[in-house]
Amino acid sequence: MTIQGQDTLIVGAGLAGLALARELAQADRRVTVLDKARGVSGRSSTRRIGEARLDHGARFFTARGERTNAFVQEGLAAGWLAEWTRSVPKWEAGRVTQEGGNHPRYVAPAGMNTLGRELSKGVEIRTGAQVVRLTKTGTGWRVDCQDGRAFTASRLVLNLPAPQIVPLLAGTDIDGSPLQAVQIDPCWAVGAVLNHDIAGADWPALRVQEHPALEWIAREHTKRRLAPELIGHPPALMLHARADWTRAHLQDAQAEVEASLLTMAREIALGLDVAASFAHRWLYATPTERYPEAFGWLPEQQLGWCGDWCTPDEHGPRIEAALLSGWGLAKELVASGL
Predict the structure, then answer these.
(1) Which of 21, 98, 105, 208 lies in the 20 to 30 Å Cα band around 136?
(2) CA separation for the pair 232, 53 (Å, rounded)
């Protein structure tokens, strides 16, 4: 089945692609977003275990730019966004210490995947669409999916990690070498629902320093209590492993990773009593070598890319970078009359 007639196809329903799609849709462009998953949001993801909700991808986000602050105010006013904390203490060698950096960290109390759901309102989304081939045609692009569906459009934007874009471009005459320098670290994440909260803990999260495996521990229920309907959310922890530990254990079974990280977390969160848990491997989590521009756009080929691995500002790879990358590309396309 071939679905035709779109102005723009966006492959990847992460936040950069959704920010781009919403802007184009509001400018009356016909746009469709494809994603291999069952839902939207990319790494701004939330996993449910029973009544618990755990943000196993993006932890929170900050807003430094004018455009992102406007987006935050929109979310705060609507109630799907809230300020979580203004500081995250660090754990090092058994001690928890407060540090500076007094600025708001925002979360979606119902789960960070709320960001994707809000951005995708009014946008046509096709899920379960695993893209296997890109073909340049005389009138634009054809995108073939593993399930036999095909989509055509005048222009194509790839909102995927750069290492996934390069092999897709290998079947075209597009030079993907500018993307080959992008490096993205992996991350093992483990979520745990607890039988009871950690005794004496008064921190929303910890930045773990000088630990052989862990770099982040969050008390996820402190986010949920920002929503009146989730005040009874059970205590829960989210653990993120260091990139070097993840690489060393990249092919380990989920159950082994889960057991290892929970054991090590007990050194930090004393009295950790786990009722249920899961592990998730992110192959592309944190960009360390980024694309030098805010986005990519090749006007002659009608092809572009965006994501937090691009460099729309100087503050590093994060949710705000993804949003700015998508918004920047949307501005370019609309201003060009595309």
Answers:
(1) 21
(2) 12
